[in-house]
Design goal:
The protein has 3 domains: about 325 residues, Thiamin diphosphate (ThDP)-binding fold, Pyr/PP domains (Rossmann fold), CATH 3.40.50.970; about 200 residues, Thiamin diphosphate (ThDP)-binding fold, Pyr/PP domains (Rossmann fold, 3-Layer(aba) Sandwich), CATH 3.40.50.970; about 130 residues, Rossmann fold (3-Layer(aba) Sandwich), CATH 3.40.50.920. The protein has about 700 residues and is α/β, with parallel strands linked by helices. β4 and β5 form a beta hairpin. The strands form 5 sheets. The protein has a 7-stranded mixed β-sheet, with helices on both faces. Strands 1-2-3-7-6 form a 5-stranded parallel β-sheet, with helices on both faces. Helices cover about 40% and strands about 15% of the residues. The protein binds thiamine diphosphate and magnesium ion. The site of thiamine diphosphate (TPP) has 16 residues, from β2 and β4.
Length: about 700
């Protein structure tokens, strides 16, 4: 087909302003036929999966039926393996257009060990391929938005001259999530090269768009967002979709800021095979949508315009059917994942040797000073380390930086980092904790080393979805294909007086309960330095809990141990050897346990306590616990967090289970009362465990 014919055709596909549109180098007809082949393949894989689900040979099905035209247009407008893509579960045709094969897809449907996206760990349609830069998708609606922001930020940081872009996709329902709005805000603030692709099929499971979005139209709602390029398009029309996608891609490649493509299309099948849309959609409505099926309308247009004849169409569909038949047979024969592979890729297999010796120099420094110093040293060592969070920079208005002292964090942990390393490497984020974690995750996936701060542990909860459902499992769910080694620094704990409910809580066991997440909590300056450096150099996500009360204590200071000093994860420290009773503790209770030990031994020298500072809370040092309990035969777990369902419950249960025959007394626990930390010091002291509580409970055990 000549360009002139293209112009006359109803199917005009213009290349817009983009210089990279594949349509220039191929004839239009070839391009359009290729597009249809991808659309048809997508539908046939969906239909094959539905058949397999009916036969109970796969366990879940969700389709792209009705979304194919837009998705293929989006995929063809991108550069596969170059641009980053954060897809959602309905993106089968997009994934195909980017290079995922029907066999790859069916291997995931059957849950095969060979499933390249997840090794049989994720439901079908959870795309992922590091080769194709398709970041492993998850099931929560909207989490992908924040990660795509971090990824785009990493692109600008790591390759300032590149024209690589990031595309993130979801349905219209997912735009109700706060994370979508946090992502729009971050993209607009930082003028990021991200395409938000909203596939509006009018329904989020059973909820129609007008009950989901005020006014029923998400792009109208976004009209006030500064520098957000927006277009609405008929997503059942391939040519229109491709044109808009090309424009959006060109806009982002030219670094003109973010773009939003709001595509109106139809969901031809139920939300998933697990439900029936006849329960909430009228027959008339379904009929209207069916008439817009792009798998029917697009080839009709191709035939009407002389691009494809009926025989060629039949040949092509036959070929696709044949291919799907063949790959189905292969997938059905594929081996399932071995049961003993369940723990593979939970943590990085590349655990560096983090054991190193101290080379002390200078005067003793506080924990806050050594953390600050370690951050600076690691930023000097590795240009990809960046620090961000709420108030962590010295002064956001750079022009004033030379006039002011600088903020550097509410606890001054990050003081001076912006001044030394520039705003690119130490910057303030909006007050949006999910965004802090999600963005950090995207940055880490794209090759940076973000050290993000959550200002207070008490405010970590908006980020919980990102931490639990995303950060901790990206490596596992992609079977090692992706990772996100983020360090999340979080000031935690009480005893400062006046912190009350929202500036004093602990709650670490909520996080030690998360597989794949490393949780550490140093009790002194030296450990904080060594563990933070290990965290920054490690390949796993780490929750680094910094006890606020310990930041400036005189007793836990240390001289600088050297710019390469590291402490391995999962290694406890015996801070005081003893023979009569083991105290397993960490954080602020290390010092209180030591004071209790002194009191007890003063009263009775035989009552010698062995105090173990766990330092790493998950995974933790079971060997150290076992060795000590076998020696003392008596043990208690002591922590600041509330007692019931707390960290000590797990340790106590495991000791009772595995070391029962070594015990001469029950396992005891000391923790906070099961309530909130109160404002008045008298109330706070009564709620949080004190030295006397440790002494009292230890005496009970010692007299058993
Ligand atoms: C955070 C979260 N809440 C709820 C769900 C359950 N859920 C899965 S898909 C879906 C509807 C999404 O609708 P939309 O974004 O419009 O995408 P569509 O399925 O229509 O393509 C819901 C509520 C989920 N996966 N994640
Ligand atoms: Mg929808």
């Amino acid at each position: 087909m000549t360009p002139a014919q293209t112009e006359q055709s109803h199917l005009t596909v213009k290349t817009g302003t983009s210089k990279t549109g594949t349509i220039d180098s191929h004839s239009d007809s070839e391009f359009l036929i290729r597009a249809f082949r991808l659309m048809y393949t997508s539908r046939r894989v969906d239909d094959r999966e539905i058949l397999l689900k009916r036969q109970n040979r796969i366990f879940f099905q969700i389709s792209a039926a009705g979304h194919e035209a837009l998705q293929v247009a989006a995929g063809l407008a991108l550069r596969p393996g170059y641009d980053w893509v954060y897809p959602y579960y309905r993106d089968r045709a997009l994934a195909l257009a980017l290079g995922v094969t029907p066999l790859d897809m069916l291997l995931q449907s059957v849950g095969a060990a060979q499933d390249p996206a997840s090794g049989g760990r994720q439901m079908p349609s959870h795309w992922g391929s590091s080769k194709l830069n398709i970041v492993s998708g998850s099931s929560p609606t909207g989490t992908q938005y924040l990660q795509s922001i971090g990824c785009a930020e990493a692109g600008l940081y790591l390759e300032p001259k590149s024209d690589r872009i990031t595309l993130v996709s979801s349905g219209e329902g997912a735009t109700s999530e706060g994370e979508f709005w946090e992502a729009i805000s971050a993209a607009s603030l930082r003028n990021l090269p991200v395409i938000f692709l909203i596939q509006d099929n009018g329904y989020a499971i059973s909820v129609p768009a007008e009950h989901q979005t005020p006014g029923g139209n998400i792009s109208h709602m976004l009209s006030g967002v500064p520098n957000l390029w927006r277009r609405e398009v008929d997503g059942t029309d391939f040519a229109a979709s491709y044109k808009v996608m090309e424009e959006a891609v060109a806009h982002c490649r030219a670094r003109n800021g973010p773009a939003l493509v709001h595509a109106h299309l139809v969901r031809l099948y139920s939300h998933s095979f697990s439900e029936d849309d006849k329960f909430y959609r009228s027959a008339k409505e379904r009929e209207i949508d069916a008439a817009l099926d792009p798998i029917v309308t697009f080839p009709q247009q191709l035939i009407e315009n002389g691009i494809l004849d009926r025989h060629a169409l039949q040949r092509m569909t036959h070929e696709v059917d044949q291919e799907i038949q063949e790959v189905t047979a292969v997938a059905l024969e594929a081996e399932p994942p071995a049961p003993n592979s369940a723990l593979t890729n939970l943590y990085s297999p590349h655990q560096l040797n983090f054991e190193s010796v101290e080379r002390f120099s200078g005067e003793p420094k506080t924990m806050v000073d050594l953390i600050n110093c370690t951050l600076a040293e690691e930023m000097r060592r590795d240009p990809n380390v960046v620090v961000f969070g709420e108030d962590v920079a010295d002064c956001s208005r750079e022009a004033s930086l030379c006039e002011v002292k600088g903020k550097g964090g509410v606890f001054k942990v990050t003081a001076g980092l912006q001044t030394e390393f520039g705003t690119r490497r130490c910057f303030n984020s909006p007050i949006a904790e999910a965004a802090i974690v999600g963005r950090a995750m995207g940055m880490a996936t794209a090759g940076m080393k973000p050290v993000a701060e959550i200002q207070f542990f008490d405010y970590i909860w908006p980020a919980m979805m990102q931490i639990r459902d995303e950060l901790a499992n990206l490596r596992w769910r992609s079977n090692g294909d992706f990772s996100c080694p983020v360090v999340l620094r979080v000031p935690i704990g009480g005893y400062l007086n006046g912190g009350a409910i929202y500036h004093s809580q602990c709650g670490e066991s909520t996080f030690t309960h998360i597989p794949g997440l490393r949780v550490v909590m140093p009790s002194n300056a030296l450990d904080a330095c060594g563990l933070l450096r290990t965290a920054i150099r490690s390949d796993d996500p780490v929750l680094f809990l910094e006890h606020k009360k310990l930041y400036r204590e005189p007793y836990n200071r240390s001289p600088h141990p050297g710019a390469d000093y590291t402490i391995p994860f999962g290694k406890a420290k015996i801070v005081k050897p003893g023979s009569a009773l083991t105290v397993i503790t960490y954080g602020a209770l290390v010092q209180k346990s030591l004071l209790a030990a002194i009191q007890l031994e003063r009263k009775n020298p035989e009552h010698s306590l062995e105090v173990i500072d766990l330092r790493s809370l998950s995974p933790y040092d079971w060997e150290a616990i076992r060795t000590s309990v076998e020696k003392t035969s008596r043990v208690m777990v002591v922590h600041e967090d509330t007692l019931s369902w707390g960290y000590g419950a797990e340790i106590a249960a495991r000791i009772a289970d595995e070391l029962f025959s070594s015990l001469d007394a029950p396992v005891r626990r000391v923790g906070a009362l099961d309530t909130w930390v109160g404002y008045h010091p008298q109330l706070e002291n009564a709620i949080l465990p004190q030295v006397e509580d440790v002494v009292r409970e230890a005496e009970k055990l010692l007299s058993w």
